Amino acid sequence: QVQLGESGGGLVQAGGSLRLSCAASGLTFSGYRMAWFRQAPGKEREFVATISGSGGSTSYSDSVKSRFTISRDNVKNTVNLQMNSLKPEDTAVYYCNAADRFRNYWGQGTQVTVSS
After folding, report:
1. Cys-Cys with 97: which of 7, 20, 32, 35 at CB 3.0–4.6 Å?
2. Structural contact between residues 20 and 74, judged by C-beta atoms closer than 8 angstroms
3. Number of Cβ atoms within 10 Å of the Cβ of 66
4. Burial class (CB in 10 A: 0-12, 13-18, 19+), 57
5. According to the model, what pLDDT value does residue 8 have?
């Protein structure tokens, strides 16, 4: 049974930082591309960042590029999202995603709130 568990969300002032973590179990972790998505109230879920199975390739949405950094640890089966220079518009529920060619898994999400 695949499980993805996010942690690290919370309330932070604009300009501050948070580090989200996602712990994965029940899958061959290095075989999955990992990603973070987010969903703000009243909006659709949107892509934030992704990292390849080896960790050698990353990609970011334009809205977070240069502020957020995605990383993974294939020994600990974790993926992290370091978020710096946070803005109120970053407020959302952040979801961890694991995907390969045939399967797609989601965590339950962690709330990030950025106050102005």
Report:
1. 35
2. no
3. 9
4. exposed
5. 97
